[in-house]
Amino acid sequence: MSFFDVSLDDERTQLEALVEDYRTAMEANLGGLTDEQARRRLVPSATTLLGLLKHVTWMQRVWFEECVRGADRRELGLARSPEESFRLTDEDTIASVTAAHRAACATARAVVAELPLDTVVTGHRAGPRTLRWVWLQVLRELAHHCGHADILREQVMSG
Question: Are 100 and 57 in contact (CB under 8 A)?
């Protein structure tokens, strides 16, 4: 369901639809590309299209599995920092990173399925947050990185 198809009366449905739209857009930026194109570095930083999807996968696991569910980041096998989460290994492909992203999204949906937006979660390193805050933070990060991905894809396709 797209954000434009939801009722304006239900805040939760709106948040979920917006996040889903951005999740889909992140994956769509890899559509039709080769692994080489998806790994291509076009800016001085380590940011690549494939690295962006790997990062937003990590980011969602941090917010939903660590912050909301309360799991330990080390036990989850997650990178220690945002910068590390962009790094690609030789095993990372469009297929493998997309599969990991989809699995993280499915886990996130399950973790929050029965929780009201006003639920206070305590897994955040800086202290308690409401689930609403987590949804808005994830939405902000996805929107931010979708903009990066749009520009990188344009560069890949024109070069």
Answer: yes
**C-alpha angle 20-98-62 in degrees, rounded to nearest 5:** 65
Q: Does residue 59 sit within a domain?
A: yes
Burial environment of residue 110 by CB neighbours within 10 A (0 to 12, 13 to 18, 19 or more) = exposed
Q: Is residue 1 part of a domain?
A: no
Counted domains in the chain: 1
Q: Which domain holds residue 83?
A: 7-158
For residue 14, is it within any domain?
yes
- The reply to whether 148 falls in a domain is yes
CATH of the domain at 121: 1.20.120.450
Crossing angle of helices 131-158/11-28, nearest 10°? 20
Tens-of-pLDDT digits for all 159 residues of the chain?
554 555 656 899 999 999 999 999 999 999 999 999 999 999 998 899 999 999 999 999 999 999 999 999 999 999 999 999 999 999 999 999 999 999 999 999 999 999 999 999 999 888 999 999 999 999 999 999 999 999 999 999 997
Name residue, tokens 């993280």.
Answer: 104
